[in-house]
Amino acid sequence: MSTSAGGAWDPSHLPPQDGRTYLVTGANAGLGYFACEQLAQAGAHVIMSGRHPNRLAAAHDALEARIPSASVETLLLDVANPGSVRAAAASVRGGLFDRTRLDGVIFNAGIVHPPHARKLTRDGRELVFSTNALGHFVLGAELLVSMSKAAGSRWRPRMVWLGSMSTRMGAYDPLDVQLEKSYSSWKAYVQSKVAVQALGFEADARLRDAEVPVDSVVAHPGYSIGGRTPRVTGVNEPSRWKRIRDGVQAPIAQSKQSGAETIVRALIDPTIQGGEYWGPKHMMRGAAVRQRPSATSLDPEVRARVWATCEELAGVEWPFQKAARAAR
């Protein structure tokens, strides 16, 4: 394990990840890209996924240019499209990718700036909820058996759900998950993130009950912004004005590179256990520390309702028993 002299986690010297394979959704920019970069630097094989072919290719090229030794490949995946999720998962399971194991996944893709008016996906689901929460619920179900096969005596595969500090700032209506009664962009974002966190905690409880050797962890990146982030051609190219504007927020903000460090730690730190919640020490910025999530996302009733709603909307149930058998 990589630690500093004082025994603390050192994000600049991660534990070697050679021989492990990780999938990151929304990997062509922001937090997802920098998480991929950090994992590749540590020696992992990284599957970068995204829904825009050109942007994904640009991110892939940028990563290889910055880390010549990187082992990385790309996968088209639109988490708001169930068909795309299932096709991508099938590729990971052995179609296009000659991989025998999947050691972890970061459910990072999402809409950070929701539309002002309510929009629906092709299958009639509210766009923000479908992208941030429902699509990753389906992906988790599709990849669970493959992840359970990677479990061993020294490693439990892990899924990391991307939460948000905003879950402490807004209300949640469990009876109107798709915001059919009342919609606002802020409510859509907060409610989707409450759902994400609830799914992450509920997944871990159900994995434990079913004795599936896969952990589910929730992490949030604090206030990570592009203008405080290193320039990477094709990935992060903030304008001069954005640099100035975001620079003013330096006392309360951090780079997306720093935000990704929390997510990566949640994925690979062997001392972290399923069901934990991690974020920056000072809430919006700082080193990764274990935290207590919002009461709403931790509420057993909310968790159960969100899980049941996702099962109903997606027509998918997680194959817990099959995954438990596959791990034996």
From TrEMBL:
It holds the Pfam family adh_short. It comes from the Bacteria. GO terms for molecular function: 2,3-dihydro-2,3-dihydroxybenzoate dehydrogenase activity. SUPFAM superfamilies: NAD(P)-binding Rossmann-fold domains (SSF51735). InterPro entries: DHB_DH, NAD(P)-bd_dom_sf, SDR_fam. Transmembrane segments: none annotated. One of its GO terms (biological process) is siderophore biosynthetic process. Keywords: Oxidoreductase. Belongs to the short-chain dehydrogenases/reductases (SDR) family. This is Oxidoreductase. It comes from Microbacterium faecale.
